[in-house]
Design goal:
228 residues, Rossmann fold, 2 domains, 6-stranded mixed beta sheet, 4-stranded antiparallel beta sheet, globular
Length: 228
């Protein structure tokens, strides 16, 4: 599903974010990206959604050579990758329903499709009774569930979560992780960048550890491996 081949990324200011990394992710895997701040985790996620392009090397997602996509092709790539962020990135002037629907509207989905899909995904994340509420009326955990629903509504084969529990208390963080695990069990591939040691150590998923832009560990049923 996803392959990185000898990928390096050097930013214009000279910072080398990734150094000759190679790895692959199979359909249906759940992978944690761990490592100190600045290790290259977020750069990997940006490369996957073509927010950045490799300086050297190549990456492929579902048959696309991501770094060589034409600008007109990038939206089609992004419809196949759902993004979940630490700070939710919800639109404050839209209701829960409208925030999720907006992700379909920008793809040109029909009103019929939106009317069918949005309630289904809100039910999946346990927010079917809060569809008409505003983001500001929700708890942080509920806002993250809206963000997950928005990422899921396009039915993407892969979800990328960049520190999705970073702004949540421990109990709420575990609720979000249980939800992501259920989504993964339904067949969605998940790549999650995180500093949450307890979560990584408890869930026993694949762990790719980065330091200074290099992969230093790639373990099935891995551990976080750093002090929290």
């Amino acid at each position: 599903m996803l392959q990185f081949f000898n990928v390096s990324k050097v930013y214009p200011n000279g910072v080398q974010a990734l150094v000759n990394i190679s790895f692959s992710v199979k359909k249906g895997e759940f992978v944690f990206l761990v490592g100190p701040s600045g290790a290259g985790k977020t750069t990997i996620t940006k490369l996957i959604i073509r927010e950045e392009v490799p300086t050297r090397g190549q990456l492929f997602f579902n048959g696309w050579n991501v770094g060589r996509l034409k600008p007109s092709e990038v939206p089609y790539l992004r419809r196949n990758v759902g993004m979940i962020f630490q700070d939710f990135k919800l639109l404050p002037n839209k209701t829960v329903y409208e925030n999720v629907a907006f992700a379909l509207e920008v793809t040109g989905a029909s009103k019929k499709e939106i009317k069918k899909s949005v309630p289904q995904v809100l039910q999946m994340v346990g927010l079917e009774n809060k569809a008409n509420m505003w983001p500001g009326q929700l708890s942080a955990g509920e806002q993250q569930r809206v963000a997950i629903a928005r990422a899921l509504v396009k039915n993407p084969p892969m979800l990328i979560a960049d520190e999705p529990t970073g702004n949540l208390d421990p109990d709420t963080a575990w609720e979000i992780m249980k939800l992501l695990e259920e989504i993964n069990k339904l067949g969605t591939t998940i790549i999650m960048a995180t500093h949450a040691k307890d979560i990584v150590d408890s869930m026993k998923k694949r762990v790719i550890a980065l330091e200074k832009g290099r992969i230093v560990r790639d373990e099935e049923r891995g551990q976080y491996g750093y002090e929290s």
